[in-house]
Design a protein that fits this description.
The protein has about 190 residues and is of the alpha/beta class. It contains 5 helices and 11 strands; from the N terminus they run H-E-E-E-E-H-H-E-H-E-E-E-E-E-E-H. It starts with 6 loop residues before the first helix and ends with a helix. About 25% of the residues are buried.
Length: about 190
């Protein structure tokens, strides 16, 4: 048989249970904050470097830098890309306020290029380069337009033909090569 409990005793038990739960929750929140403060302070999350007077911060595997209150994010820092030869004249003036087109299958490399330098273009759009076979229904453009072409090759080669910027690299190195172009366009390298 169940014991009969008065309303006042039931209220007292509920208040006691809520107080205990509140204390447990406060303890959990406080200990998680303290744990985060003391144990998340590893080298990778707080790593900073300076390259040509530009400061870079590593956060969650990505490098952040700020130029004129604009934040730029890359997978690599300039030290990792400085050995890549990019004797190209591709610059912000060339794309500022004009359409920027791109060709390529490496979404991550294209994404970093568009996030960092595509913001200066009037708009950006995927296209098909004239003379090449493309899968999909893309507008066909030639090198009289500003086009960034990411293509797969056995070695890294960054070059220009008219207004086309070619980034040829093994698929797994295309992000590295595209980061080199970002640093070049932003005049960090």
């Amino acid at each position: 048989m169940k014991r009969i409990v008065s309303k006042s005793e039931m209220k007292r038990r509920n208040t006691r249970n809520q107080t205990i739960m509140g204390i447990v929750l406060i303890f959990l929140m406080a200990s998680s904050i303290v744990g985060f403060a003391f144990f998340s302070n590893n080298d990778e999350t707080n790593r900073k470097i300076k390259y040509n007077e530009q400061e870079f911060h590593l956060n969650n595997g990505l490098w952040y830098t700020s130029i004129n209150r604009n934040v730029f994010i890359t997978s690599h820092n300039p030290y990792e890309t400085e050995d890549l030869i990019a004797n190209v004249d591709f610059n912000l003036e060339q794309i500022y306020g004009k359409p920027l087109y791109y060709v390529g299958e490496n979404d991550r490399a294209i994404g970093e290029l568009l996030h960092n330098i595509g913001r200066y273009a009037e708009r950006y759009q995927e296209v098909c380069l004239e003379g090449r076979e493309c899968l999909g229904n893309f507008v066909v453009k030639d090198c009289s337009s500003n086009i960034i072409i990411l293509e797969e090759s056995n070695y890294i080669d960054i070059y220009e033909e008219d207004n086309c910027l070619f980034i040829s690299a093994p698929y797994e190195k295309q992000v590295l090569a595209s980061n080199r172009i970002i640093f070049k366009v932003l005049e960090i390298q």
